[in-house]
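Table 4 source record.
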Amino acid sequence: MVLGSCATGKRALEQGNYYEAVTQAIERLRQNPDSKKATATLRDGYSLATKYYTDQITVANNSSDPFRYESIMNSYGSLNALYEAIQRCPACQKIIPNAREYTRQYEQVRMQAAEARYHAAMASLGENNR
């Protein structure tokens, strides 16, 4: 079962499922801190996941969608979840010593998302479309 999860992490990485690949590699490294495959998957996967989510944030920021902040918030949430998982794994901290936390950005965009929903709701109430 453990070998399958490592192979699945590598497979997830190859399929572009970076978040899944990283989380599976972290689990494997918690069980076996010397796993070379999990080390490689974590190193490559974290870099790719970070790039993917930061690219998604950039795309959403450039969007005119009034609810774009929700997409940005979800991306920051995923980045923070990976950061927290790495922090709970000593072997992972050695592999990714400079994992980045995005809590401040997440909190800021969460407020923007709430404001966007609030303004949309108020505008909808003001339409008198009953």
